[in-house]
Amino acid sequence: MVKMSFHLKGDYLPYQLSFGGALNEIIRLVSGLPYGSPGALPGHMKHFYEMAQSLILPGRRERSYAREVKSRKVK
Fold it and tell me: Is 34 helix (H, G, I), strand (E, B) or coil?
């Protein structure tokens, strides 16, 4: 995910990418490698890094209420 985030245009950090989506892409890549020819590996890697653009998460929204610590009920 670190390498994927560095290949993106813009300043994205690894935590701004979807972990589940990245995991699915990695599994897809690794499971398909034994069936492809060795000469096709650079093309697979290029497609893998281009796919990172679709894994960017939207920004966090602001809280609609302030955080507070709730008191515990005493028995």
Answer: helix
7 burial level (CB within 10 Å; 0-12, 13-18, 19+):
middle
What are the residues whose beta carbons fall under 8 Å from the beta carbon of 1, sequence distance 6 or more? 14, 17, 19, 22
Rounded to an integer, the average pLDDT of 8-14 is 87
Report how far apart, in Å, the C-alpha atoms of 19 and of each of 11, 25, 63 are.
18, 10, 23
For residue 51, the one-letter residue type is: M
**What pTM, to 2 d.p., does this model score?**
0.69
The model's pLDDT over 28-50, given as tens digits with 9 standing for 90+, comes to 989 988 888 889 889 988 888 88
